[in-house]
Write a structure and sequence with these properties.
With about 600 residues, the chain is an alpha/beta fold. It is about 30% helix and about 20% strand. It contains 19 helices and 27 strands. Strands 1, 2, 11, 12, 13, 14 and 27 form a seven-stranded mixed beta sheet that branches. The protein has a four-stranded antiparallel beta sheet with strand order 7-19-20-22. The longest helix has 18 residues, at about 475-490. The radius of gyration is 23 Å and the shape is globular. It starts with 8 loop residues before the first helix and ends in a 5-residue tail after the last helix. The relative contact order is 0.19. The structure holds flavin-adenine dinucleotide. Flavin-adenine dinucleotide (FAD) binds near residues 70, 118, 257 and 294. GO terms for molecular function: flavin adenine dinucleotide binding; oxidoreductase activity, acting on CH-OH group of donors. Pfam families: GMC_oxred_C, GMC_oxred_N. InterPro entries: FAD/NAD-bd_sf, GMC_OxRdtase, GMC_OxRdtase_N, GMC_OxRtase_C.
Length: about 600
């Protein structure tokens, strides 16, 4: 898989500079002088916001303003291996959950990190690029929850519309895949031998290979990722790059929306107040205001504008416009973190090895392949329905996400999750320098729900985030099952070729449970629950009769006119999927609904 010709570092670097120059401007310019009025104002240029901005600004006669708090996306952000590092940059909102006594016990101050993208492209620029639609039952369930038009047979066409499948074998399946959509999907161009061992082990333990974005999801596969030619293909690259000079779209960057303007008489949204360069500005919407600020910021902005739970708003001295359960129903996919296996060969991804390697650098810079093309170490995956594990049509409640490195592979990874430094030193420091892998068993269909609340009425202060992980003990048991399964995988021949052994230094506070017992793993998981960053659900879609619903099935905010929410926050139940592709689907479908509701044929 290495390139055929080995250029020198200098030549490879020059090629890369040439490539960047040739790429030119890859996103719309920053419009400093916004007009007083647009047809549509979209808040947030993330996964959903960029897709929506493209589709709405394509309608003749419509002018669209996209307001984004972050700055430009740059070439460095699109190198897959640096995904972990981006969380330390200003492209991350750097949220942390409220300290908890039941989870995140091994994290500094018992707080888990909750990264969110603050950049053109939003979280699609921070993410690990895993492309995953979810199971057909996820969407049929959304419809059963009172949301007509969201069943799988309806949403499949939007999943197809967004996709540009570049994997030839999969592209042949015209029912489940599409070629020519904006979002490029490929396999990662290079793999460690450990990723192959993971798949072989999965087969030996009764699994089977699957296109998990095809008719069924259960099974094992290398990851399908949103990459083109070994580089990140964010929503910004996919949807805004091709229309960067479109005159009907204006984008104001480094601009934080602080309030939705609502007419008290008509109860309709009329515009947005935002802050740019420390100055307060106001812009009006002739047709609609659309909030696409993501699962943490969308509920925050609604509540700041008087749309939210009455008692909570009154407590913060915010006049209530509409009493709705904004901020409830926070869902995430949490995993059993820091379970790691040591191997006895140099086959895993280790930061210092990559940084020291002339070959790895040249392979990426000149050919966009090699270890640097692996998004943060994520390579392959297994989806399992624990209640029906042999059924290919099973609805997965467990994912095993294979990572060809672990918390000891690079000095920053423990900080990504916020692991307490003293605890890290006790458990992991003595194996630093060893090769390792980490399976990340992940809970796909959690029962536990968290909540986003305002800290105060200052729009520039971070909201309070209560994750409520493991509020239901069943959720914890799925992850314990997941850990035990990964130990079984490690014990198979494909991993034993590399001498894979479970790292067995116990967490001091869990030691009395007996290392390796279910009770021990429960305790371990409560110490190290790693978010897989799928925050969703906080502006739940549902009928007016649902006390927790915030938007209806056309994504209009209940009780407030000309206002919609379009992003991961509307998910009524989190799908058994990494949430980026489902969020694109939501935006594509929303674009059609907005056109229909404004008299434009689709
Ligand atoms: C580290 C990380 C890894 C992930 N890995 C994967 C993965 O591999 N695969 C996958 O499918 N999913 C992954 N996800 C999740 C996925 O990326 C998200 O579900 C998806 O991007 C959510 O899209 P969104 O449009 O709802 O919000 P976002 O993409 O977060 O967009 C919200 C945008 O709104 C902007 N904004 C917020 N508030 C304001 C304001 N007041 N004013 C102006 N702008 C504002 C933000 O800056 C941001 O650009 C990951 C997420 C993260 C953070």
């Amino acid at each position: 898989q290495r390139g055929p010709y080995r250029p020198s570092i200098l030549e490879a670097s020059l090629r890369s500079i040439w490539e960047i120059t040739r790429m030119g401007r890859t996103e719309p310019r920053d419009t400093r002088d916004v007009l007083p009025e647009y047809d549509f104002i979209i808040v947030g240029a993330g996964t959903a916001g960029c897709a929506l901005a493209n589709r709405l600004s394509s309608v003749e006669g419509w002018k669209v303003l996209l307001i984004e708090a972050g700055r430009e996306e740059n070439y460095m952000m699109d190198i897959p291996i640096v995904a972990n590092m981006l969380q330390f940059s200003e492209a991350n909102w750097k949220y942390r959950t409220v300290p908890s006594d039941t989870a995140c016990l091994g994290m500094a101050n018992r707080q888990c990190n909750y990264p969110r993208g603050k950049v053109m492209g939003g979280s699609s620029v921070l993410n690990y690029m895993i492309y995953n639609r979810g199971h057909y039952r996820d969407y049929d369930q959304w419809e059963l929850m009172g949301n007509p038009g969201w069943g799988y047979r309806d949403v499949l066409k939007y999943f197809l519309r967004l996709e540009d499948m570049t994997i030839p074998d999969l592209a042949r399946d015209k029912v489940y895949h599409n070629v020519g959509g904006p979002v490029a999907v490929s396999y990662i161009p290079w793999h460690t031998p450990l990723a192959a061992a993971f798949l072989e082990a999965g087969m030996l333990k009764g699994g089977w290979p699957v296109d998990y974005n095809g008719p069924t999801q259960a099974g094992y596969s290398y990851l399908q990722v949103t990459m083109r030619n070994g580089t990140r293909w964010s929503s910004n690259r996919a949807y805004l790059g091709p229309i960067r000079d479109r005159r009907t779209l204006h984008v104001t960057k480094q601009s934080v929306a602080t309030r939705i303007l609502i007419d008290p008489v008509t109860r309709e949204a009329t515009g947005i107040e935002f802050v740019r360069d420390r100055r307060r500005r106001v812009v009006r919407a002739r047709r609609e205001v659309i909030i696409s600020a993501g699962a943490i910021n969308s509920p925050q902005l609604l509540m700041l504008s008087g749309i939210g739970p009455r008692a909570h708003l009154q407590e913060k001295n915010i006049p209530v416009v509409q009493d709705l359960a904004v901020g409830y129903n926070l869902m995430d996919h949490v995993s059993a973190g820091a379970v790691l296996f040591l191997v006895n060969q140099s086959v895993s991804l280790r930061a210092e090895r990559i940084l020291d390697s002339h070959d790895d650098y040249v392979d990426y810079i000149a050919y966009h392949t090699g270890p640097m093309s692996i998004p943060g170490g994520c390579e392959s995956v297994g989806f399992i329905d624990l209640k029906d594990p042999n059924n290919p049509d099973g609805w997965p409640d467990l994912e095993l996400l294979f990572n060809s490195g672990s918390v000891i592979s690079e000095p920053t990874l423990r900080d990504n999750f916020g692991i307490d430094e003293a605890l890290y030193q006790k458990i992991f420091a003595h194996v630093e320098g060893r090769d390792s892998w980490m399976p990340l068993p992940m809970l796909m269909r959690p029962k536990s729900k968290g909540r986003v609340m305002l800290r105060d009425r200052n729009p520039l202060r971070k909201p309070l985030i209560f994750h409520n992980y493991f509020q239901y003990p069943e959720d914890l048991e799925v992850l314990v099952d997941g850990v035990l399964r990964t130990i079984e995988l490690s014990n198979t021949e494909p991993f034993q070729r590399f001498g894979s052994t479970l790292h067995d230094t116990p967490i001091p506070a869990c030691k009395s449970k007996g290392f390796g017992t279910r009770a021990y793993w429960r305790c371990h998981i409560r110490h190290f629950p790693f978010t897989i960053y799928h925050q969703s659900g906080t502006c739940k879609m549902g009928p007016r009769s649902d006390p927790n619903a915030v938007v209806d099935s056309r994504l209009r905010v209940h009780g407030v006119g000309r206002l919609r929410v379009v992003d991961a926050s509307i998910m009524p139940a989190i799908p058994a999927a990494h949430t980026n592709a489902p969020t694109y689907m939501i935006a594509e479908k929303a674009a059609d609904m907005i056109k229909e509701d404004n008299g434009v044929p689709v």
